[in-house]
């Protein structure tokens, strides 16, 4: 099991094998891919080289379940056509996604509880759920032209899990919207684009970058997603089973009595609050290595495998899946998993009686 926190210049990777009970941390410098092809792999493209680098520095990634803190693809492009070196397809009028399959999945079809999300969001979800160890829910979602359906599904999930009271850690969840191709094309074509991002972008999008996307706009915060797009392809090339995930959401789902401080309020307090959650979760699982965490990027990477393994033992795992956007994994702690199931049961009973 692995978690990958994506930055413009670095990948922070946390790996945890259940049999070893030890959390390992590795930082991969993406800037090294600029010189590496000329020195060692002159005929190798940068995405393939990134996969080789990951396999060399973190061999545990080969064949692992990897959770990545980044979207898979620009919002207006079709991820199902995003093969390394192949053409990229724009989304026109897609058919609804089909319900995906997951190993060791005990499933029962229900509907999302009413009264807490709008009808359009509710109709976008189909799901199956069972509480207990190793249980996984798969959520199939359809395509929206306004925002990612994965994000719509996450908002619906937050409405379902939200508890009464102002102190709930799930009252708000900040998620930056995934930009369209014109945003990434404009930034990749600027003279100030970082060389390693440009190299990755050229491998990802090829001739699509030859068109004029206009001046770069919208800030540079989401520019890191270029590295994220390449990371998905690189991980899948070395046999990893890759899902998107969101560290901030996982911290909120597993913090229990601990308070999570926003990163915007100060990085020191934010890191300390996350280390407390990681330490408590590691003790609960009997896992060593959490004391290595010294940066927020490391904390974000570490919470992903820790929470997934904990959910296999104590809670439940949800997978939001869309043909065009990929797969998103959420690990629920036991109280949230039980709350989720109870809301489903109550809604089913109301439907039968109405």
Structure description:
The strands form 4 sheets. A 5-stranded mixed beta sheet has the order 3-2-1-4-10. Strands 9-11-12 form a 3-stranded mixed beta sheet. 42% of the residues are buried. α2 (46-57) packs across α7, α8 (247-254) packs across α10 (296-314) and α9 packs parallel to α10 (296-314). It has helices at 36-39, 46-57, 119-123, 149-161, 181-188, 195-205, 225-237, 247-254, 267-285, 296-314, 334-353; strands at 2-6, 10-17, 22-29, 65-68, 77-78, 89-90, 109-110, 127-128, 136-140, 241-244, 316-322, 326-332. It contains 11 helices and 12 strands. The chain is globular, with a radius of gyration of 20 Å. The N and C termini lie far apart (44 Å). Helix content is 37%, strand content 16%. The protein has one domain (2-353). The chain is α/β, with parallel strands linked by helices. Residues 84-144 and 347-354 have low confidence and may be disordered.
Write the layout of secondary structure elements.
Layout: E1 2-6, E2 10-17, E3 22-29, H1 36-39, H2 46-57, E4 65-68, E5 77-78, E6 89-90, E7 109-110, H3 119-123, E8 127-128, E9 136-140, H4 149-161, H5 181-188, H6 195-205, H7 225-237, E10 241-244, H8 247-254, H9 267-285, H10 296-314, E11 316-322, E12 326-332, H11 334-353
Parallel strand pairs: 1-4, 4-10, 9-11
Antiparallel strand pairs: 1-2, 2-3, 5-6, 7-8, 11-12
Helix pairs in contact: 2-7, 6-7, 8-10, 9-10
Structure, briefly:
The chain is of the alpha/beta class and 354 residues long.
Mean pLDDT: 78
By DSSP (H or I, 4+ residues per run), the number of helices equals: 11
Cα radius of gyration in angstroms: 20 Å
Helix content: 25-40%
Major beta sheet summary: 5 strands, mixed
What fraction strand? 15-25%
- Anisotropy-based shape: globular
Order of helices and strands: EEEHHEEEEHEEHHHHEHHHEEH
Q: Please state how the strands of the largest beta sheet are arranged side by side.
A: 3-2-1-4-10
Number of domains: 1
């Amino acid at each position: 099991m692995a978690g990958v926190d994506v930055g413009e210049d670095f990948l922070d990777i946390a790996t945890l094998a259940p049999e070893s009970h030890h959390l390992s941390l590795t930082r991969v410098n993406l800037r090294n891919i600029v010189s590496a092809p000329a020195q060692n792999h002159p005929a190798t493209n940068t995405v393939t080289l990134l996969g080789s680098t990951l396999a060399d520095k973190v061999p545990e990634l080969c064949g692992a379940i990897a959770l990545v803190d980044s979207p898979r693809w620009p919002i207006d492009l079709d991820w199902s056509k995003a093969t390394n070196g192949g053409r990229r397809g724009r989304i026109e009028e897609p058919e609804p996604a089909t319900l995906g399959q997951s190993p060791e999945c005990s499933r029962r079809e229900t509907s999302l509880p009413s009264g807490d999300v709008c009808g359009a969001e509710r109709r976008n979800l189909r799901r199956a759920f069972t509480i207990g160890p190793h249980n996984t829910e798969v959520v199939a979602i359809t395509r929206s032209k306004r925002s990612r359906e994965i994000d719509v599904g996450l908002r619906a999930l937050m409405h379902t899990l939200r508890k009464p009271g102002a102190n709930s850690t799930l009252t708000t969840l900040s998620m930056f919207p995934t930009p369209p191709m014109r945003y990434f094309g404009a930034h990749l074509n600027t003279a100030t684009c970082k060389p390693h991002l440009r190299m990755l972008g050229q491998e990802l999008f090829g001739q699509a970058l030859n068109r004029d996307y206009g001046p770069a706009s919208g800030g540079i915060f989401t520019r890191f997603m270029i590295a994220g797009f390449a990371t998905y392809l690189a991980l899948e090339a070395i046999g990893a089973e890759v899902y998107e995930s969101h560290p901030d959401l996982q911290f909120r789902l597993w913090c229990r009595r601990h308070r999570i401080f926003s990163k915007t309020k100060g990085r020191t307090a934010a890191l300390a609050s996350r280390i407390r959650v990681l330490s408590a979760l590691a003790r609960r699982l009997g896992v060593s290595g959490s004391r290595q965490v010294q940066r927020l990027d490391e904390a974000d990477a570490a919470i992903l495998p820790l929470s997934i393994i904990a959910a296999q033992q104590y809670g439940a795992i949800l997978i939001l899946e869309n043909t065009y956007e990929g797969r998103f994994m959420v690990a629920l702690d036991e109280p949230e998993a039980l709350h989720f199931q109870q809301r489903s049961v109550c809604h089913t009973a109301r439907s039968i009686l109405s």
